[in-house]
UniProtKB/TrEMBL annotation:
Pfam families: ABC_tran. Keywords: ATP-binding, Nodulation, Nucleotide-binding, Transport. SMART domains: AAA. One of its GO terms (molecular function) is ATP hydrolysis activity. Belongs to the ABC transporter superfamily. This is ABC-2 type transport system ATP-binding protein. NCBIfam families: PQQ_ABC_ATP. The keyword Nucleotide-binding applies.
């Protein structure tokens, strides 16, 4: 499995944010983690990226246990956080070069990888522009390209379309779906049902618990996802 999470629980003091969360994502799959505000998506991302830790449960990335082999596990992961982390005064290429250097990649090898990552997001023509000059959608694409430079096996994105207009949102959702299939696995957190496709692996998270885990089309069973999601999250509220 590309990403394996078993029996993960987490509390902020008395408030339980995750309750025995368990799922596996197969290599090359796009997995949508769909949950309303407060479902626990960011908490799960915090644990996956080791921003914080919890005593119980287990996380493995590309077979590497996050507790016992954190460098390998984190090295197999690309991460795009909700808030932008580009240096707005640097060009797109400089931002990616800086990130590559942090991973010990420099010189011609870095440039080759950066060009390939920018091509995957259709961003090569923007490489020389300062991040500040880009619109929100292109900044996000630059960040996604940056997260691919070290060739991760699994890409995590925490609500990557927040604050974007409809056209940029749809373009980024398409781009990231296109990234899957050649071995890259994606975990995409969202509260927007229109970002999920029928063939996606879908996890519905509500109040810290996984309510559904399967192919989106099977979960909706002919109904539309928005209705299914509202019904599920209303019933369990
Ligand atoms: N630092 C904190 N201290 C206390 N409770 C917190 C803290 N961070 C989150 N919570 C609570 O934990 C639960 C899960 O929050 P989390 O931010 O993980 O959800 P989310 O699905 O990412 O929501 P959103 O879409 O609003 O970001 C919520 O009930 C939230 O109020």
């Amino acid at each position: 499995m590309s990403l394996s999470v078993a029996d993960l629980s987490f509390s902020y003091g008395a408030r339980q944010a995750l309750d025995a969360v368990t799922f596996d994502i197969a290599p090359g799959r796009f997995c949508a983690l769909l949950g309303p505000n407060g479902a626990g998506k960011s908490t799960l991302f915090g644990l996956l990226t080791r921003l914080f830790t919890t005593a119980g449960g287990r996380i493995a990335v590309a077979g590497h246990d996050l507790d016992t082999a954190p460098r390998r596990a984190l090295g197999a992961m690309g991460i795009v956080f909700q808030q932008t982390t580009l240096d707005l005064d640097l060009t797109v290429r400089q931002n990616l070069r800086y990130f590559a250097a942090l991973h010990g990649i420099s010189g011609r090898e870095a440039d080759t990888r950066i060009d390939a990552a920018l091509d995957r997001l259709d961003m090569r023509a923007r490489a020389g522009e300062r991040a500040r000059a880009l619109n929100g959608g292109h900044r996000r694409r630059a960040e996604i390209a940056r997260a691919l430079v070290h060739r991760p096996r699994t890409l995590l994105l925490d609500e990557p379309t927040v604050g974007l207009d409809a056209a940029s949102r749809s373009a980024i959702t398409d781009h990231v779906h296109d990234l899957c299939g050649d071995g890259l696995t994606v975990l995409w957190a969202t509260h927007l049902t229109d970002e999920v496709r029928a063939d996606d692996h879908l996890l519905i998270l509500h109040q810290g618990r996984i309510l559904r885990d399967g192919r989106a089309a099977e979960i909706t069973a002919g109904s539309n996802l928005s209705d299914t999601f509202l019904t599920l999250t209303r019933v369990a509220a």
